[in-house]
Amino acid sequence: MMKNLGVQPYLYPMPTYMIGTYNEDGSVDEMMMAWGGICAENMVALNLEADHKTVANLKARGAFTLAVPGTDTLKESDFFGIASANKVPDKFARSGLHAVKSDKVDAPVVTEYPLTLECKVAEFQNQPYGVRILGEIVNVLADEKVLDEKGRIDAAKLNAFAFDQMRNGYYALGEKVGQAWHSGAEYVKKA
Q: 180 by DSSP, 3-state: which?
């Protein structure tokens, strides 16, 4: 039997993405984001509250990185979601992680994150629920340790984790359970 839970932002899995920007003094700002993702072949959408330091940085620099953290950086990544750069300006330094400047955009690349999209801001959309930032992907960086023998990203090697909005938990991802555009093909043949 189904139970009515009302209006809730319950969807699983929620991604855990890391937005990397530079503050006005050139220091690194890293923020965990769950509300957003791919919205076109070369575009991402970030849904943020307007008062985030990251939003000010995006407006000032016009660029960002969007990274997928692995479970080996779960504590640091969670800290980036807990601490606001408006109140804790040295939060990246406190984490002990490392960053280098992107070659493609004016944003940092955290070297411990296995997958990073380098993006430039394409559009700001003020919405009743906050700000939506559309970013154009200009390059993708992947640590060689997450690539297969053909040079493609192996999702199992990312050791990514998802956010559970219902119980505020993180869950490891990675086991392959089917093949996209193949597992359900038998139903096409019946049509």
A: coil
